[in-house]
Structures are given as structure tokens and as C-alpha cells.
């Protein structure tokens, strides 16, 4: 079993080095299934002087991938390794990687969606039980392609974040952002709608097996269409009803915009 784990670790790093996405995903899943046997091998790889030197080749990617894998396999061992690495004189870029990975994943394991997809919720989230109930409900949406997602993390929103959700391409995992500072019925309802839509959007990236990072127009379009479809499946009565109610307002705004476009001088009178 140890030999198999060692081969999988080497395949993972080789795939990362070659930017081979299918091979990276395959090796990653193999190591998740291997479990504890892979941990000593990961720690051995992390115990390297490479992190004290300037980044060369894929070294920075190796550090991020190995730490992320350790975090998934053994959170307590991960915490100890973070402490060990932070006590060393790391190169500035590698120290930044360590700090980023240390903050990127939730701490509390709430359970598994559909009996197999683990959910991690940050200790900073004030209502973790509410978040998990929502995820349980959304995971049962008709035709949702969630079963092959490897993990879902829910992190706290802060102003520096430029996203409400992420799909980690090499790992097949999803990150969602949750706002604590929301009060009032309408604002809390809108937070739920926004998070649900983002959840379906990121599952859409997974469903289409998108393999490029960043905002790729075609990929975003496919994920948005997938999200809209899943949202309709989840709310088969509410969505059509809301459309009927809002249709007159939409028509009024459309006519107003058309009129304004034809007579732009009207606003300057």
C-alpha cells in the first residue's frame, strides 16, 4: 500500500509540473482514497530546504499542492506542519503560500452531502448549522451533478475577496463564501439566494469539467446557464411565479431605457 501511495504522490507532482490536468485529478483522487498511508510521504516531501530558496520551476506549486493534500487527509497533522514551516526561514514567496493555504480551508467538519461529499465550515462562520442545512437542501436538487465533487469549503467573506465562490480545478473541490454581517429578513433572504446561485454556478464548472483558471467567457456562460437550470429545478413554483410578478416591471424598465436611448437630451433639460 505504501508503494502505491508513493507512486501516486510522484504521479501527482509530475502531473502538476507538466500542467497535466486529467493526470492531476486522477492522482489526487487516488491519494484521497489511499488516506493515512500517504501522510508520511507528504511530510517527507515537505521536509525540504527548497522552501528556503527562491522559487524555481514548479517548486511553489509543489508546496501548495502538498499542503492542501495534507490538510484534506489530516487537519491536525496539517496544523503541526504549518507551525513547523512558519518557524523556519522560508523564502518570502513560499511563506506567502504557507500563510494562504493555512487560511483557505474550513476547520469544522459538519458531515457529508449525499453521503460522500465532505463539508468543511470555517470556525469564523457564526451560523454553521444554518449553512450546512442550506447545503443539504441544495445538494438534493434534481439533476445536480454533485457526487464527484471532492470537497466543499465555506469560508468567511472579507472585503479583499473578489469572489463569492471558487471551483478548484485540479482538485475538483468548491469554495463558497458566507457573510456574517447580514441583518434583516430581506438581506438574509438575498444572502441565501446569492449563495445558492453561486453554489450551483461552481458545480456547473465541475459538471462541464472546465480546465482553465480565471474568468473565461465561454466557461462562465456555461456555468451561469447550469446555475439557472438548477435554480429552476430547486424552485419549480417560485421561479415562474416571480417571473410573472416581475414581468411588468421588466417591461417598464425596458421601455424606459429604449425611450432614453432615443432621446438622450431629455435628462439634460
Structure in words:
The structure is a single chain. With 269 residues, this protein is an alpha/beta fold. It has helices at 2-17, 21-34, 39-46, 59-73, 75-86, 92-103, 128-139, 185-207, 217-234, 238-262; strands spanning 108-113, 117-121, 151-156, 165-168, 173-178. Strands 1-2-3-5-4 form a 5-stranded mixed sheet, with helices on one face. Helix 4 packs antiparallel against helix 5. It starts with a helix and ends in a 7-residue tail after the last helix. The relative contact order is 0.07. The mean pLDDT is 84.
Set down the secondary structure blueprint.
Elements: H1 2-17, H2 21-34, H3 39-46, H4 59-73, H5 75-86, H6 92-103, E1 108-113, E2 117-121, H7 128-139, E3 151-156, E4 165-168, E5 173-178, H8 185-207, H9 217-234, H10 238-262
Parallel strand pairs: 2-3, 3-5
Antiparallel strand pairs: 1-2, 4-5
Helix pairs in contact: 1-2, 3-4, 4-5, 4-6, 5-6, 8-9
Features:
single chain; 269 residues; alpha/beta; five-stranded mixed sheet; 10 helices; 58% helix
